[in-house]
Amino acid sequence: MAKNGSILLAIDSDASALLKFENHTLIPLAVNGLSEDTLGRRFVVSEHPRLAQILASDQSVRFAADSELPDPYDGLIETDNDQLLVHDCMGVTLFIDGKPWGVLTLDALAPGTFDHIDAMQLTTFISLTAATVKAAGLIASLEQRARYATQTLFRENADHDMIGDSECMRKLRNEISIVAPSQLAVLILGETGVGKELVALRIHLESTHADQVMVYVNCAALPENIAESELFGHIKGAFSGAINDRTGKFELANGGTIFLDEIGELPLSIQAKILRTLQNGEIQRVGSDQQIKVNVRVIAATNRNLQQEVAAGLFRPDLYHRLAVYPMHVPALRERGKDVLLLAGAFLEKNQQRLGVKKLRLDQNAKKALLDYRWPGNIRELEHLLSRAALKSATPENRQADFITISPDYLDIVSEPLNHPVIKIETDLFPVPATPINLKNAVDEFQRQLILQQLAAQQGNMAATARALGLDRGNFHRLIKRLAIN
Ligand SMILES: Nc1ncnc2c1ncn2[C@@H]1O[C@H](COP(=O)(O)OP(=O)(O)OP(=O)(O)O)[C@@H](O)[C@H]1O
Ligand SMILES: [Mg+2]
Predict the structure, then answer these.
(1) Ligand 2 center to 261 CA (angstroms)
(2) Residue from 198, 219, 265, 349 whose mutation best tests the ligand 1 pocket (most atoms within 8 A of CB)
(3) How far apart are CA 352 and CA 347, in angstroms?
(4) Out of 197, 210, 345, 381, which could bridge 41 as a Cys pair, Cβ 3.0 to 4.6 Å?
(5) What pLDDT score was predicted for residue 101?
(6) Are both 303 and 341 inside the same structural domain?
(7) Number of domains the chain contains
(8) What is the pTM of this model?
């Protein structure tokens, strides 16, 4: 939706926002004069008394500059000097067909700005905005094929919202909406932490079978000896321990979607069986000679370079071609421009709720640091980094403040003039040696520290750590053995 600048022109305010009310939450759709990360924030109404008051009223509600109630935008109004600033604030609920659709808010830095608003002018603008929103909503609902009542076995993922407004994310959304309603297999590619799982879920939710089940399979966690039974099921007595018949993931997904995550980790023997299912739409339970027909949409994802894996003989070329009917590349965070700020806004809003602090905001330098960083771990890394920054900045003294400003000091990144990741190594781990040092030992020690640091960042996940360090798993395991890391 376009910026709601016309309201700014008509009523003298410094910032305005149009927010949609959904699921007890107000979601900014358009903002003007507010920090970019506002678009990524989600305001839970019960946590924002001003927004709750606005929603509870059918009149416009004003909050004077000296109002005691915390302002949802504290620290988010863009000013030249990063200072804030008491301000005047008003808001009004937009009713569409008698129901609260959302809220329009106006903020002005100069107290008393809203004292002289012409009531007639305001009412006209509100009805005009409501009418525009209604028309836009009608168009959107015609285009909207997604049915969100999905009953899914998908891994618990409370938030299905794909945040980002950059050109490449728009393209990705567009691709999703094109491919989702088809039955084509989709192969989702992209670096670690870019949101491949989220993309898979969006494809399912926008498909024609969104009300059917979506079954999640983590291929990396499937030991070869049980993989076949997990995927295709077994019959009683098929092997020792098979005391009952068991339905496999493909059968469970019948009519819906199966998501084969980390497909690059699948053993070759299982790859052959999956290929057969994709070719003839049939499965065979372990121990049974009966063929069962299944109608399943397959979505697969990997952060490996599957073409390279094929060339190395680790992945079957025929399966690769079956899966890559529609390859979809999820862009790295560093390619998404200002999306990093929108995502930061969303994560900070979550963290402030979790920590029970009023408002977490980024200062200009912190924003710049986020925009300049290379993000090898992508959105997952951003999410973890901001959780740490939030925790560190919410000191007991800061907790009572109206807002907590996060400066680059709280972020564990340093600028990278050479466009290379710069890793901040705690200097006390590397005291300047008093005596001459052996280079090999020093390099080993450096590698040790780097691996330990990455392991911590990846919460102990070995495969993810190897990927983050650009090592294949074999080399990584040999290295940690040699360095005696366990
Ligand atoms: N556009 C987005 N908006 C909001 N959150 C996102 C977005 N993209 C990713 N995330 C979040 O980032 C985290 C990592 O995403 P996800 O698990 O989908 O990554 P991935 O590509 O599957 O990584 P890997 O290859 O390591 O498995 C998740 O918590 C996810 O919800
Ligand atoms: Mg994943």
Answers:
(1) 6
(2) 198
(3) 9
(4) 345
(5) 85
(6) no
(7) 4
(8) 0.67
